[in-house]
Structure formats: structure tokens, C-alpha cells
Amino acid sequence: MLNKLQQRLRERQTQELMRQRLTCESPQSVQVKVAGNSYLNFSSNDYLGLANHPKMIEAITKAAKQYGVGSGASHLIVGHSREHHALEEELAAFLGCERALLFSTGFMANLGVLTSLLDKNDLLVQDKLNHASLIDGGLASAAKMIRYAHNDMASLKRQLNAKAEAKLIASDGVFSMDGDMPQLAEIIEIKQQFKASLMIDDAHGFGVLGETGKGSLEHFVLPQAEADIYMATFGKALGGFGAFVAGSSLLIESLMQFARSYIYTTAMPPAVAAANRMGLKLVQSESERRVRLKDNIRYFRALAKQNKLPLMDSETAIQPLLLKQSNIAIKISNELKESGILVLAIRPPTVPANSARLRITLSAEHNKSQIEELIERLTESLKKIEL
Which long-range contacts (CB under 8 A, 24 or more apart) does 135-144 make? Predict the structure, then answer.
């Protein structure tokens, strides 16, 4: 086995696809410290700038003094605290759902949903560019899984023609590597036509999209109830950690009884739940952060267009710069880092072959001069490559 692993790593190294980690020495912010150096950060999912918000720090500190650090057990033993319970109730009230259920991570939430609710007689139809956790959850499920071409409604209809006792459509609310969104109104019409259910993974939409931050459904002015299963995370717009699933009481009770990734894992620390509660409050009380983020997205895209940068089509905080070749993406990322800017290169197998990119993420905390500096550096680096 060791020889096989060594060979796989050598192959990935030869293809310049090895992943590397950065070790941060500062809080998440638009300025981060790595290995003693300060960088302008355009790689974080902290879209609203809440990860280091004073009220978030105060909430987690106060709860840690009351509850300690670890939760000590799973939710179904003695790990479910008042903080957890209050967070679930507040999420359900915010979204207008009957109930919500906490999971330790988004990956565990998607795995739990898809492995516990579907059986061998069911059909799972997923967008080809869904997050890895949805794909892996589908592979682990007993259901038959088929993937439809990205945002292709004709392809979705064809896949739904397969016979099954129950049919579930699963889609990201915002696609994490491309930054685009599904055609939710059309998907809802199709799900009704085929008597299917719909699951939305809104990890990158919850807290950011919609007039009040309810996410992708609110963005398209669609009823929240059209998502039979709604999953989102706390580690992005809310600045916290963990995930939840929201929907009907029947859905939540079923997950509590059958989702192995919920039943057989330690609950998130109560102090983290308290921080997530504060993040949810800030999403509702500091709506100006979403306004600033939208302004930053518009400003960045306008400047990118002026400088003819190869941006992909996205109106969200995720703004990918499509460079196709991995070596070019790495080269420009390294040049930016040398000039004090962090924008990480995303390469296969995370994205399809020949679609390497710089995944630029914007925050409400970025100012115009920082965005201008990024555009200037990107333009310089691309001109060098053209020459």
C-alpha cells in the first residue's frame, strides 16, 4: 500500500497538482498574517467579515465560561445544550421552517441526509458541479445517483425520467468554484412536474443572498418551503462553524433517528453554537454588510471588465478568474503572494481538466483601494504571460 501511495503522490507532483497548506497566525480578516508576513486576503469565505467580529468573540467567550470547551457527547446522549437548542429554534424561525437540526460540518450534513433518507428504490439527480460532499453523499447512498449537465434543465428532465419510488433533486445554491447559481425557478417547476423533492446546499448563499440574508431562494423571490431539504453552513457568511438542515418536522425527526453522521458524533461545542447564534443575529441586524459586499462585487467586476480580465460569469462573492492551465494559475498566484496578496490557485481535480483558475472571494470588509490594488496586480501578471 505504501508503494502505491508513493506512486500516486509522485504522479500528482509531476502534474503540478499537489495541494499545500498556509498556516495563518492571525484572525480571519481582509488582512492576514502568514509565516510572519502580512497579506491582503482575497481567499476567505468570511463574506460578511463576521469571523473576528467583537460580538462573536464576546459570545463564544461568555458561553465557554458557562459551558466549558467540549460538549462531551453526541446530541442524543448528553451533548445537546441550551445553546444548541436555541440555535435550532432561531434558525427555524428565521427561515420560516418547522424545525432545524445541527450538524458538526456541512460534509456530515450532506452525508447524513443522502444516506439516511434514500434507499435502493429511489433516484438521486445531482448537478454535475455540486459540492464534493453532495457527490460523496450520493455515492454512499443506496439510491441510484445520476448527474445532469451543469444548469442544463433539459438534461435534468431526461435524468428524472428514470423510474423510482422517490426522486430527489440536489443542487448547490451557489456553486463554490464557479460562483454562479442554479435556475431555481425552473428547477422547482421541474420537481413539481416529476413529483420529486428538492435539496438545496446553500453553504455559500445563506446569510449573503436575499434581502434579509435567507439565501438563494429569497434571492430569486421563491418560497423557502420549495426546498424540501435546506442545508447551509455557519463557517462562511456567519463567521462561525458547523452546519444545519432545515425543513419539516417529519424531515428533522427522520434525520435524528436515521442519520448516522448526526447520531454517532460528538456535538459541536456549546460555545461554538453560541457564536453561531450571534452570527445569525448579526446577519439580521447589520444588513449594511450585505450592501457593502454587493457594492464590492459590482466594483470589482466593473474594473475587471475594463482591464479585460477573464472573469467567469458570477454575481456572487466568488469571482473566479479562468486561466485554464494549472502552471499559469500557480505562477500568477505566486506573483500575487510576492506582492502581498493572497489569491489561491484552484486546479484539477477540484475543478475539471483545463479549467484551472484563481478563486477570488470578496468580503464586505474590503475597501475600494484594496480591490484596485488586486486588479492592478492581476493585470500586470497577465500582461507578462501574454508577452
Answer: 136/107, 136/110, 136/111, 137/110, 137/111, 137/112, 137/113, 138/114, 138/170, 140/111, 140/114, 140/115, 141/114, 141/115, 142/115, 142/118, 143/114, 143/118, 143/119, 143/168, 144/120
Q: Which three cell numbers stand for residue 74?
A: 453526541
CA Rg value for the chain = 21
Residue 367's nearest CA partner among 49, 27, 54 is: 49
User: What whole-number distance in Å separates Cα of residue 377 and Cα of residue 326?
Assistant: 19
Active site (catalytic) residues: 176, 204, 236
- What pLDDT score does 261 carry? 97
Helix, strand and coil percent figures for the chain, each rounded to 5: 45, 15, 40
The Cα 19–Cα 94 span in angstroms is 38
Q: What is the pLDDT of residues 282-297, one digit of tens each?
A: 999 999 999 999 999 9
What pTM, to 2 d.p., does this model score? 0.95
